[in-house]
């Protein structure tokens, strides 16, 4: 699985904007997002994760397409990924910001449907 495949759900403009706003290198941010996507796909798998999140959270799936899911999760999900991937807090914040910004730019998502205290997570399916 190539990084291009892992990064397919995200626009380069989103990476540029978030990298600049968070004072993080563009390629480092892309690598961190690719690591996160790879982790979701390999352990335990996107379909299994979404199934678990559907059991834990009230209607977390905001969008489902053949290529991706956009789900609303609590910050603890991001914290667990940050710990697992050994991301520094600023790197984790930037990775999460990429997901938020991509969600905002996705016409299929009504951002007002994200419950208070939750954040968006984009999970590529292929």
Write the topology of this structure.
Blueprint: H1 3-6, H2 12-21, H3 26-42, H4 46-56, E1 61-64, E2 68-73, H5 75-84, H6 89-105, E3 119-124
Antiparallel strand pairs: 1-2, 2-3
Helix pairs in contact: 2-6, 3-6, 5-6
Radius of gyration: 13 Å
Q: If helices are DSSP runs of H or I spanning 4 or more residues, what is the number of helices?
A: 6
List how many beta strands DSSP finds. 3
Topology pattern, helix = H, strand = E: HHHHEEHHE
Mean pLDDT level: 93
Low-confidence blocks of residues: none
Strand line-up across the major sheet: 1-2-3
> What fraction, in percent, of the residue positions are helical?
40-55%
Our measurement of the CA-to-CA distance between the termini, rounded to an integer number of angstroms, reads: 9 Å
Binned strand content = 5-15%
> How would you sum up the major sheet?
3 strands, antiparallel
- Output the structural class: alpha+beta
Gross morphology: globular
Description:
By secondary structure, the chain is an alpha+beta fold. It is 55% helix and 13% strand. It has a 3-stranded antiparallel beta sheet with strand order 1-2-3. Strand 1 (61-64) and strand 2 form a beta hairpin. The longest helix has 17 residues, at 26-42. The model has no long low-confidence stretch (mean pLDDT 93).
């Amino acid at each position: 699985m190539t990084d291009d495949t892992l990064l397919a759900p995200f626009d380069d403009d989103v990476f540029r904007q978030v990298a600049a706003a968070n004072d993080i290198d563009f390629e480092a941010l892309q690598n961190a997002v690719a690591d996160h996507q790879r982790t979701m796909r390999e352990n335990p798998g996107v379909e299994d994760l979404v199934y678990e999140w559907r059991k834990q959270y009230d209607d977390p799936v905001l969008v489902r397409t053949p290529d991706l899911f956009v789900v609303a999760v609590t910050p603890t999900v991001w914290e667990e990924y940050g710990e697992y991937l050994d991301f520094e807090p600023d790197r984790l914040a930037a990775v999460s910001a990429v997901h938020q910004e991509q969600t905002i730019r996705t016409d299929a998502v009504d951002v007002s449907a994200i419950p208070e205290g939750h954040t968006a997570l984009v999970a590529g399916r292929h």
